[in-house]
Design a protein that fits this description.
Number of strands: 4
Oligomer: single chain
Strand order of the largest sheet: 2-3-1-4
Strand content: 25-35%
Largest sheet: 4 strands, antiparallel
Structural class: alpha+beta
Number of helices: 3
């Protein structure tokens, strides 16, 4: 069953986070993920507002989780640590 990787981010260091983004995209693609939404317009209706919201679709929850734990994504993530506050979750779709 397909799954969505959903991230809500507040960036505090644009340069470091840019390095993360440059590496994260290829890591996500390598695991079958593709972006559906990436820092587009949004309306915050409830909860903590985060200026950057990203949604990627993966073939399965397991593929998304494998991506997160992969060496490629962990290398990307090393640039995001300390450069942003983030929430990240993966949820199966009902499709």
């Amino acid at each position: 069953m397909p799954a969505l990787w959903i991230a809500h981010v507040t960036v505090s260091d644009e340069e470091a986070y840019g390095k993360y983004a440059a590496l994260a995209g290829p890591a996500i693609a390598k695991h079958g993920g593709h972006f559906i939404a990436r820092a587009g317009r949004y309306v915050q209706l409830e909860g903590k507002d985060r200026a950057r919201n990203v949604v990627a679709r993966f073939p399965s929850l397991e593929a998304a989780e494998a991506c997160y734990h992969s060496p490629e994504y962990q290398e990307a993530l090393s640039h995001a640590r300390g450069a942003a506050e983030r929430e990240l979750l993966v949820v199966e779709t009902s499709e």
